[in-house]
């Protein structure tokens, strides 16, 4: 099978390891020795602490970094609302959340080439309260333009788990540069300032926004042992890289755009935010190549729970119950004997939002679930293979079988009931009217009572 694994172009340099403690210096000697905040940090840099968890969060969960930069992030004018191109009524309409028990499926979302990363996102499903640090938002992003020169963006609303479906993202962040391509994912933590450019044209993809306090983790491996699924060494963080600050009256102004409680604000400053010469800590953006996922499955019988495909999980306070799991369905061999191999028909106490990066999803061979589309099976909304998949799997002669070749479906699974936004239901115009009819309503009873039993 070997799945394609990406290599790294020379221009990008990474540290490897999942939430490992990294030290990164763009200029040798710019990290202070044996102290975080000496009276005079090396080379006249300012020291800045960047907290991703409460100061007193338990050691294992505690994510903080120290940044050594030319000017501190606070050196900017006050934030003002960022002007919107749409009316307040339209925006309000798009954000209303509708709780619905229906199974939903969307055709591929259109790319809006007129916007950049700042305006790229449309929330399709949501739970919780951003200001209380609870819940998640699921968005579709599309863009056709680089972010303006001298512009940086950050979100105070939570970590972004970015799942590109189309197009390449070149991300210049405070901590360094990341190249993110479809079949890779990127986690951009709350607060990190960054600028997105599109070296190969338009982009489209999905974002899981984690409003909940806390961060994505690797799942426990239990009896699997010490390796498998997403391996820690395959997560890549940027190495420190900086631009010279330009200060004084000749400096071009910079715009820092903040997403704050789902509203955009802008503040001006006369120096680049990308002036971090060195950093150390565990709070930083990172990326992961889904082609490196070590997929594990049944080698005997029955269809295992999809939790074996979890890449990252954001735990709730209830053990084993996730605020959000990011689960993938990579190419894999199926060998189970006397088994209905696709997913079972099921109802789930968790909500399941699915997307498709490329290829076909093996539980929906009847068509209709397409790359750049999506589906939502909310809490206790019944679902499972479509009729075509059911019939093919029931009648198949079982032998070793490769599924998902050239394909990558994924699921954001959450313990929350997610509401569908006005944008997701109406504005995007992608909801499939015939999802139930096309998938399940044509299933016929196959029950035959044994003779003499009635
Ligand atoms: O519904 C789906 O297609 C996702 C899914 C896949 C699987 O293998 C088992 C359970 C499940 O919800
Ligand atoms: Fe499911």
TrEMBL record:
The answer to whether UniProt assigns keyword Metal-binding to this entry is: yes
Q: Which biological process annotations from GO are given for this protein?
A: L-phenylalanine catabolic process; L-tyrosine catabolic process
* Protein name per its UniProtKB record: homogentisate 1,2-dioxygenase
What cellular component GO annotations does this protein have?
cytoplasm
What top-level branch of life does the organism fall under?
Eukaryota
Q: Which InterPro entries match?
A: HgmA_C (IPR046451), HgmA_N (IPR046452), Homogentis_dOase (IPR005708), RmlC-like_jellyroll (IPR014710), RmlC_Cupin_sf (IPR011051)
> What's this protein's family per the entry?
Belongs to the homogentisate dioxygenase family.
Pathway listed: Amino-acid degradation; L-phenylalanine degradation; acetoacetate and fumarate from L-phenylalanine: step 4/6
- Cofactor dependence: Fe cation
Q: What is this enzyme's EC? A: 1.13.11.5
Q: Which residues form the active site?
A: 303 (proton acceptor)
